TrEMBL record:
Keyword Protease (UniProt): no
Family membership: Belongs to the STT3 family.
Molecular function, one GO term: oligosaccharyl transferase activity
Sequence intervals crossing the membrane: 33-54, 96-114, 141-161, 227-248
Pfam families: STT3-PglB_core (PF21436)
GO cellular component labels: endomembrane system; membrane
Annotated Basic and acidic residues bias: 179-189
Name of the protein this chain belongs to: STT3/PglB/AglB core domain-containing protein
Gene3D superfamilies: 3.40.50.12610
Domain STT3/PglB/AglB core: 299-355
Coiled-coil ranges per UniProt: none
Cellular localisation: Endomembrane system
Species assigned in the record: Leishmania lindenbergi
UniProt keyword Membrane present: yes
Length: 410
């Protein structure tokens, strides 16, 4: 935001100085403005830093640059969405655009080096690389990859479709006129500016000129083909791509995926052995039972994953939910759930009226080691001399063989 404000200020100064946008005077204005901004920023940092105003990077930010299970915060480490993205997830969510994404990124960067629209191509290439890095580091950031992959894939698909449209309608691409005007600008004109060009600039112009000449050669070769034949080729390309069965398969897959994404986790379809499709509503019915069989002012202790459902469906007060940011708050809940029964009761009876425990697959038994680790990060008596709480859990991940600390816990 400060950078954009600085650009606006530079534009005001440029207008007052009546300087051209691409001029040395405008460059000096920007250098002076941003130098002042950098100096003010450095002074502010020097003054505020000793006061402790700037804290360390949060655990979630650290998870973007290191393995998500080594951030030092067990609460962040326990969230599945913070793990590294599975490579198969790209193919599942991005479909055919995934295979075109990286190829298109390389083409964009090459186009920025030797082609036209250098700034736009460079932006798309860097944007694509940045989104790929962050989406790869954390699975919940997979959503960032969608716009980048779609834009890059559209750029590749647009090349043949643009040519086909030109053959059928006679429409001229803006790239053509841009290349022609650029060729004229890069032509040999003896001006003071050209005389002051460095060797690197001349080499850059030479590379662009060769790329433009190659494109022009291909366009000229295609123009020698009779118009009727070019139109037939264009119709064939469009028909081969639009009429392929994969288009309809992709459409059906999108519709199916939309249903999967829209299904809430607390209620889902499943199929019995008889082939009958039923709706599993165990979670919803449990929250409705809680609403109908507890006092209206009841306080419910549960792991923070279920806080929203307890409040929204059960209409009861939850001690924590997904919006609870205080680490000690959630660690206290972890201590109450991971402590031995007698000790846990002495704590719970002061804070809650009911305790909600989810059993079954993906229930609290599976999450209990995370509860112990998070609680132990604040209350070290849960797992003495064992920061990772390796003695709290199950033998060989067998749910029927709990370890002594697990067996004694609430």
């Amino acid at each position: 935001l400060l950078f954009l404000c600085g650009l606006q200020a530079c534009e005001v100064f440029r207008a007052r100085a009546d300087a051209e946008v691409r001029s040395r005077a405008n460059f000096k204005i920007r250098m002076r403005a941003f130098s002042v901004m950098a100096g003010v920023g450095a002074l502010a940092i020097a003054v505020l830093s000793p006061t402790g105003y700037f804290g360390p990077l949060t655990a979630r930010v650290r998870a973007l640059f290191m393995e998500h299970t080594r951030t030092g915060n067990p609460l962040v480490d326990s969230v599945a969405e913070h793990r590294k993205t599975n490579p198969q997830a790209y193919e599942y969510f991005l479909d055919f655009t995934y295979s075109m994404w990286m190829l298109g990124t390389v083409l964009q960067l090459l186009g920025a080096a030797v082609g036209s629209r250098k700034e736009a191509r460079l932006f798309m290439g860097l944007y694509s690389l940045a989104t790929y890095y962050f989406s790869d580091r954390m699975s919940r950031l997979m959503v960032l990859a969608g716009p980048a992959a779609a834009a890059i894939a559209a750029g590749i698909l647009g090349i043949p479709y643009e040519w086909c449209w030109t053959q059928l309608t006679g429409w001229a691409s803006p790239n053509t006129s841009a290349r022609e005007s650029k060729s004229k600008e890069d032509g040999p004109c003896k001006t003071k500016r050209n005389q002051r060009q460095t060797v690197a600039t001349k080499l850059d112009h030479g590379a662009r000129a060769r790329a433009t000449a190659a494109i022009k050669f291909m366009e000229t070769a295609l123009e020698r083909v009779p118009l009727v034949l070019r139109a037939a080729i264009a119709i064939g390309i469009i028909g081969a791509t639009v009429g392929t069965p994969y288009v309809y398969q992709f459409q059906a897959r999108c519709i199916q995926s939309s249903y999967s994404f829209a299904v809430p986790r607390i209620m889902f379809h499943t199929q019995l052995r008889t082939g009958e499709t039923v709706i599993v509503k165990d979670y919803v019915e449990a929250y409705e039972w809680l609403r109908d069989n507890t006092p209206a002012d009841a306080r419910v202790l549960s792991w923070w994953d279920y806080g929203y459902q307890i409040t929204g469906i059960g209409n009861r007060t939850s001690l924590a939910d997904g919006n609870t940011w205080n680490h000690e708050h959630i660690a206290t809940i972890g201590k109450m759930l991971a402590s031995p029964v007698a000790e846990a009761h002495s704590l719970v009876r002061h804070m809650a009226d009911y305790v909600l425990i989810w059993a079954g697959q993906s229930g609290d038994l599976m999450k209990s080691p995370h509860m112990a680790r998070i609680g132990n990060s604040v209350y070290h008596d849960i797992c003495p001399n064992d920061p990772l709480c390796q003695h709290f859990g199950f033998y060989k991940n067998d749910r029927n063989r709990p370890k002594p600390m697990m067996r004694a816990s609430l």
